Each structure stands twice: as C-alpha cells, then as structure tokens.
Amino acid sequence: MSSQPFSRLNPINFLQTFVTQSLELSELCEPDKNNAPINKIEQLGLNAGSCFEAAYRKEHDLAKPLDHAQYRNLIVEIKNKIGGSFSPASSEPGTVRVINTRCPFGDAVKHAPELCQMTSSVFGGIAAHNFGYAKVILDKRIAVGDGICEVCIHTDPDQANQYPGGDEYRKKGEVVVGKSACADVSTRMEKQLNKAWFGARSSQPHAAERPHIVAQSIGMRQALETVEIVAPTTANVLITGETGVGKEVIARAIHAMSERWNNKFLAVNCGAIPENLVESVLFGHERGAFTGAYEVHQGFFERADKGTLFLDEIDSLPLLSQARLLRVLQDNEFERVGGRQSLSVDIRIIAAASSQLDKLIAQGNFRRDLYYRLNVVPIHLPPLRERPEDIPPLAASILTRLSGKYRRHPYKLSNHALSQLTRYDWPGNVRELENILERSFLFASGQVLEQVVLPGKPEQAQLVPPPSSVHDMSCTLKEARKKAANEVEEAILKELLARSRGNIKKVAQALRITPRAVHQKLTQHQIDPNAFRFSP
C-alpha cells in the first residue's frame, strides 16, 4: 500500500509538531469565563481526524461512507504512522476494537495522560462522520500504567448505552461535535449543587464559590454516572476513598440531585466526636440525662429529618454506637439519650470511609450487618495519583477560583509547574493540591506560576520572604526556616482576615482548623482581628 498521499498531505507531521511543540500543556483544559473547561485537545483531534480521513479517501479513491472494516484499517494506519503499534482485535457487530503496545507519544504520555483524548477524538470524529454516532471507550491505557492500550469504538447508540463512561461524538449536518459522555452529568450536577447551595440567595454566587466537578478520568466518570443513577432513589450509599479525594462533594451531589435537594444536608465527622458523646451528638439527649445536660439537645438524626445525613469517617464509630446506628437504619426510629419516647425520622443516609471496611470487619472492629446496611450502593473515588489526567483541569479550576478569592489576575501553570504536579504522588489528594496551589499562588509574581512548592522537595523550596524582610543572613538554617515559616503564616492569616473582614470562623474554615487554634495563632503573631472588621 502506498503512503505517498499521506506524506504529501503531511497530517501526521502536522499533528506531532503541533502537539509536542506548539501546545502548552497548562492550556489544554483552560477554563472559560464560566469556569468550564475548554478541551482544546478534543477540538484538535476532531480537526486532525477530518484531515486524516480526507487523505485516506484520496489514497484509496473512496467517495462513499466507510464501512467498519475500512474504518478499522484507517485508524490503525493513522496511529502506526504516528509511531504507535496498533492492531485490530476481535469485535462484535456495531463495534470496532483495537489494541496498542507502543504509545505514539512515548513515555511523555505518562506525565500528560490527557493526551489520550487525542486518540478518542480522532477515532470518534472519523467514526461519527461515517456512521453518524460513536462512543469511544479507552478500556486500558499505557498512560496510566496498564502496559497496553485497548480502545473500543461503539457505533450503535443503543448498544453504546449499555457501557458506562467514554466520549460520545455525533454528526450534526456536516459537522462532528464531541462531548464526554460524562460532561452532561457534570454540568447537571454542578447546576443542581448551585441550586441546593445558593438557591435562597437573591444574587448569583461568585465564580470562586460555585462548585466545579472535574471528571476526565475513567474512575471519576464512573463515579458520577453512579451518582446520577442512585441520587433519585432512597438507597443508602457508601463512599470510599482516601482522605482528600472529595467524598463530601460527591455526597452533596447525591443530595442535590435527589428530591430532598431543598431540605437540609448535614455532615458529621464521626472521627471528630469524643467516644463518650457519640450517641448524644447523633441522637440527642434529654435534660438531665447526664452531668452537664442542662437542656434538651436535638442530635443530627433529628435535625436532618426530611433531608440527608452524611456520616463521614463512619469507620471510626465505636462498636456500641454502631449497634445503635444499625437499629435506627432498620426501624427509622430512635430515642434521645436519657429519653423514653421513640422519635421517627425520614432521612437519607450517605456514609463515607477512608479505610477498607472489609479489613476492619475481619479484625472485629466494624459490624458486618451495619456494613451491608450502609453499602447498598458503593461508590469508590480513586486517589489523585491514579487519575493524573484530572490534574491539569483541576489545577486550572483551582487557580481560577483563587483569582476570584484574592481578586488577582488568573494565573496559568508553566510546563515545568504542570510537570511537577503530574509527577507528584499526592498523598493528600485534591485537598493537598488545593493547599499547595494556594501557597504558590500567594507568592507568585507575574501571571504564570513557574513552579510550585511540594513537600519533601528542598530544591524547590522557593517560598521565602522578599529580600527586604531577610535581616540576618548569619542566622542558622533552622532559624531561617522557622522565620520564613512564621512570616508565611502571618501573611496568610492577614490575607484571610482581610477577605473575611475579621471573621474568625471563616478563617478557621479556610485553614481547616478550629477557631481556638486561629485565636492562638493571632496571639502568637500579635494580630488584632478587629482591625480587619471594617476594612474596605
């Protein structure tokens, strides 16, 4: 088979050059003015796919729509000319499958797995142009450590609906439009979250306050699809995942997309309740039930009636409290501590755990019957290190939110900074990403974050006070570090006080510490919060 038309048209060289030299990775999922990601990779792939198809048709003198065999040969030839090692796999009617053992982008794809969107949009765009519809599912990817790529292209929409995830492409007139199959879910979810959180407000929330859900990875897409299915039901949900992956955001999304959205959503961290107060906090107590119980107290179950109760860190509940919780879940009735009257409630329970409950069950630290009662619908949120393609759009969204919070021009990440983020292991997940970007944001100059400060990376520790604030260069390294840390902490406290007009509670929420801890830090730095309460 001659490849001269491909060579003369040079779409392969165009694609390689454009991606590797012209595109800034930090701009591939740049948010628009409404904080919605604009996927430039997808648009580039659709345009390139059209070019590839035109060259292939000219080479083979084809005027009619391609059949499945011609389409399969085309996409395999395209990828192999770029540098891949693609081959056909067994396929059922209405489906084309291919496998690949060598990525055209080489090892670099592991640091920019969002480039897999290029494969999806090229394959999907060509398929939709010829068959009217395509759903592309990347079952396995070299970019995330699978060792092989497996791509499935469904061209029958009814058949495709049976498979979750993937990217959908449709032909509208002579134009092919693509959209993640989960993008509509994200949009609906964000709309309902805004409605549930800010529905009572007379004015629209600032962009920095609006919830934004990023789900380009397969794991997060599957989680969002499960949310949309289970939210309208009354089924209990158990969300699992490491600390900082966003379990409460998913719980709030379930509430927002349910019929209870205009009722209360209450979240309680079971791990933060003293063991002797667990039942009082959850179920309330009567006056005189114990020393210090001077009045009737309504617990979380009572206050969440008609709404949703989110029990975070459910794995930290003591066994006795687990038994009483199980009884409430079975009967929807409970008694306050020290009370004799049974109270009925109508609540939706969503629980979350950071650890693996099956191990706790085996150790005898978690009740098996309670686990089965809670785990009606499981949703697992993968750690950030297992979904690196979510990092660029997450970072872009966080930086946009920070620019609104601190009233500064939005920053972009340099290639070096983005590489730092994608190579880091993220033990603290999304929460750690937010904190690191905020620190880097506060000390950045210009409109580009050239690098970010990551824990355990002394060579990157550039968050030092300005030269004018370094008075004693002869001090020891330990003293210099302590001094720099104090000045950083003082600057952040003053910034947050200014933003919140001296509201200690809001500062504590932003720093994720207690108001008492904030007061201690203000005393340490001799900062008077009253000075910020009437600031313009």
Task: Outline the structure in words.
With 536 residues, the protein is of the alpha/beta class. The protein folds into three domains: 4-177, Trafficking protein particle complex subunit 3 (Muramoyl-pentapeptide Carboxypeptidase, domain 2, 2-Layer Sandwich); 218-381, P-loop containing nucleotide triphosphate hydrolases (Rossmann fold, 3-Layer(aba) Sandwich); 390-532, Helicase, Ruva Protein, domain 3. The radius of gyration is 27 Å and the shape is globular. The termini are far apart. The strands form four sheets. The chain has a six-stranded antiparallel beta sheet with strand order 1-2-4-3-5-6. A five-stranded parallel beta sheet has the order 8-9-12-7-13. Strands 10-11 form a two-stranded antiparallel sheet. The chain has helices at residues 4-9, 11-22, 40-60, 68-82, 116-131, 157-160, 183-198, 218-230, 247-256, 278-283, 300-303, 319-331, 357-362, 368-374, 391-406, 415-423, 429-442, 477-500, 504-511, 515-524, and strands at 86-89, 95-100, 133-140, 149-154, 167-172, 175-180, 237-240, 265-269, 308-312, 333-334, 343-344, 348-353, 377-380, 412-413, 448-449. Helix 18 (477-500) packs across helix 19 and helix 19 (504-511) crosses helix 20. It contains 20 helices and 15 strands. A hairpin with a 2-residue loop joins strand 5 and strand 6.
